[in-house]
Amino acid sequence: MPPAPLPRDEERRLASLRSFEVLDTASEEVFDDIVALAARLTDSPIALVSLVDAERQWFKARYGVEASETPRDVAFCAHTILNPDKPLAVEDATKDPRFRENPLVTGAPDIRAYLGVPLVTQEGQALGSLCVIDREARHFDRETIGTVRTLARAVVTNLELRRALLQAREAALTDPLTGLPNRRATMAALVEALSGGEPVAVVTVDLDHFKEANDGEGHAAGDALLKEAARRLRDAVRPGDTVGRTGGDEFVVLLSGVEDRAAADGIVQRISAALHQPVPYGERVLRLGATLGVALAPADAQEAEMLVRVADEALVRAKREGRGSIGRASPEDAAKLLRAASILRSFDADACGEGGLSGATARLQPILALGQGKAPDGAVLAVEALARWGHPEVGEIPPGELFPVIGPERGALLGRAVRAQALAAFAGLQAQRQAGARLAEARLALNLSASEVARADIALELAAQVEGAGLSLRAVEIEITEEVLLERVSNRTLDGLAALRGRGARLVLDDFGTGNSGLAQLLRLPLDGLKLDRRFVQRLGADVRAEEIVKATVSLAHSLGLQLVAEGIETPRQAAMLRALGCDAVQGFLFARPMTPDALGNWLRGLPEEGTPELVPLGPRIARRVN
Ligand code: C2E
Ligand code: CA
Ligand code: CA
Fold it and tell me: Are the C-beta atoms of 482 and 523 separated by less than 8 Å?
């Protein structure tokens, strides 16, 4: 008994079958229901959805038999698919030369009658059949054949629907340019790897020179670079590893089973080397390079999102040291990110909670005259509002740590809350008899971050806040950082600030000396003062260059008609030197720490009536003594 011959276009047929990705998958209700229905409607003990694979027939659904597959040699369905247009009806297998010696006929399940309708796809390929089987010889009437035909169509429709869904899902998980898994798919693969408890090394990759190629040589060159990078990454790792494209010029590689740093290092160096070879592109050669970050699970972190962030943190650190290098995660990276995550969580909980951001308060720190100008020595020229935020879960977080962690939007939220409190407190203090007298000439200094300044409505908002507190713009000064003056900040933004100045606010450039704005940038905005960064103040006395810098800054400020404030004064010696160098005003722990409004009220009331304040060691007497 020869097996059924192969269909004419067997290779294409098998490829089509593969495209359904259905072989060896779990049972599915639709197909189970169809075979049950086929058996019942045709009054047959057995019904099958049989898919004819290269060497076997495999049952996607079966009713009345246990086996999930048989060799192809003995499959009735292997005959059915030879004629895609027609059902195959065998009324008595013992009388049919094709089947009478078939072991499925001579033994269990003792097939006598068989009716199979080919499962023909839209492209015309017969994948297998829907068949009903009887243990007794029987005739299949037209109605029975019609029923099985209808159900066979339902099987095909469902198979095609299933394939379409799979393809859509796959498209949603694939980067179309490189064919690599996209971010979602890569993260899913990482989650899956971690859930199995296997060690994984996560390598984040950031291409260098991509922007150059893309901007300089055109998008086609950029695409070529990305595709080549993807290919090299794939070639550099084992088939079981995952390479995904997670962003424009960012990739992530998951090295499964890699547990120790030495093993990871070897692979990562290989990856790095592969990505440092130039890419031929037509007549030209494109530069390629990459900075890498590596983190290990379980050593550095155990959760997918966190692992990638730890690797990214290492990458960012490596980039700072120089493009093209490799950053290795340290336990501190993970600790830092965990802390950042818990700060963010607490901040959001606070922002959404009753009263909104109840953990935010304002501290006020006085800025005092050095007696060089009109104001008498020790007079309070301003009080600076400094943000404080705390939460029971994470404690009080200093603003220097907090602002970078919470980012610009939350930072603006905090800034607004702090301004509101500071304005109210300042107005309250001014209204008090004794404290108010000390603040008669003082302004409230408000910090605006660069991203706040960039908002179109910031001038309006600030004016409304100030006036809402019953103050005039003449009662405030605005501290901005050099970032605001850099070229990428639009003139419109600066116009808003200038308008506030036009209405009486002073504008002061904070942290002067830390950025790299030149004179030209200083002139982009009409300013009233400069605040020399405390770095320089704190090096006074220890580093002659600091003295030179202060001297030069004083002279620059004065030549531009600006007042120079020094901040961070902690020792009488620093104060004396600043006075000698011609600084106009000072702020620092030596005179007063940032205080609650109540504490500031007490501090103000403790100031002497007139002349050189004793609480403020500024007088020539003290300056002389420390000299
Ligand atoms: P900044 O604007 O330069 O503020 C001065 C910082 O120096 C304050 O730190 C202040 O407490 C500190 N300081 C003052 N005197 C001394 C001293 O003698 N020695 C030392 N070591 N430090 C002194 P703080 O309050 O931690 O604020 C840090 C930074 O956070 C601020 O630097 C500012 O850039 C930012 N910031 C604080 N509050 C706000 C706010 O409401 N809005 C915005 N946008 N930024 C804020
Ligand atoms: Ca400031
Ligand atoms: Ca400052």
Answer: no
- Ligand whose nearest atom lies closest to the CA of 387: 1
Q: Residue with structure tokens 């060159």?
A: 221
**Distance, CA 614 to ligand 2 centroid (Å)?**
26
pLDDT for the residue 609: 67
113: left (phi over 0), alpha (psi -120 to 50) or beta: beta
**Distance between CA atoms of residues 587 and 272, nearest Å:** 49
Rounded to whole angstroms, how far apart are CA atoms 130 and 47?
Answer: 7
Architecture of domain 183-329 in CATH?
2-Layer Sandwich (3.30)
In sequence order, the 6+-apart residues with CB closer than 8 A to the CB of 216 are none
Phi, psi (rounded to 5 degrees) for 168: -65, -40
Ligand 3: distance of its center to the CA of 535 in Å? 10
- What is the whole-number distance in angstroms between the Cα of residue 195 and the centre of ligand 2? 47
Contact 5, 82 (CB under 8 A): yes
Cα dihedral value 161, 167, 168, 174, nearest 10:
170
CA angle 458, 464, 467 (to 5 degrees): 140
Tokens standing for residue 236: 């550099």
Give yes or no for a contact between 477 and 443, defined as CB atoms under 8 angstroms apart. yes
Q: Which CATH code is given to the segment(s) 354-529+595-623?
A: 3.20.20.450
> What count of Cα atoms within 13 Å lies in the side-chain half-sphere of residue 221?
21
pTM of the model: 0.66
Indicate which ligand has the atom closest to the C-alpha of 365.
1
Q: Does the pLDDT at position 540 exceed 90? A: yes
In which band, very low, low, confident or very high, does the pLDDT at 502 lie, cut at 50, 70 and 90? very high
* Other residues' Cβ atoms within 10 Å of the Cβ of residue 561: 10
pLDDT in tens, 88-114: 999 999 999 999 999 999 999 999 999
The tokens for 485 are: 């003056």
SS (H, E, C) 51-105: EECCCEEEEEEEECCCCCEEEHHHCCHHHHCCCCCCCEEECCHHHCCCCCCCHHH
Q: Could you tell me the residue ranges of all domains in the chain?
A: 10-172, 183-329, 354-529+595-623, 530-594
Closest ligand (CA of 389): 1
The CA 388 to ligand 1 mean position distance, Å, reads 10
Nearest CA to ligand 1 atom 24: 399
* 151 CB within 6 A, ligand 1: no
Distance CA 32, CA 20 (A): 18
510 CB under 6 A from ligand 1?
Answer: yes
Residue with tokens 């605006």: 448
Residue of 368, 418, 447 with the most ligand 1 atoms within 8 Å of its CB, for mutation: 447
CATH of domain 10-172: 3.30.450.40
- pLDDT tens digits for range 210-264: 988 889 889 999 999 999 999 999 999 999 999 999 999 999 999 999 989 999 9
Cβ of 366 less than 6 Å from ligand 1: no
In ligand 1, the atom with minimum distance to the C-alpha of 479 is 2
Give the C-alpha separation, 115 to 95, whole Å. 15
61 beta partners: 49
**In 10 A of CB 558, how many CB atoms?**
14
Per CATH, 10-172 and 354-529+595-623 having the same topology is answered no
Please state the atom number of ligand 1 nearest to the C-alpha of residue 399. Answer: 30
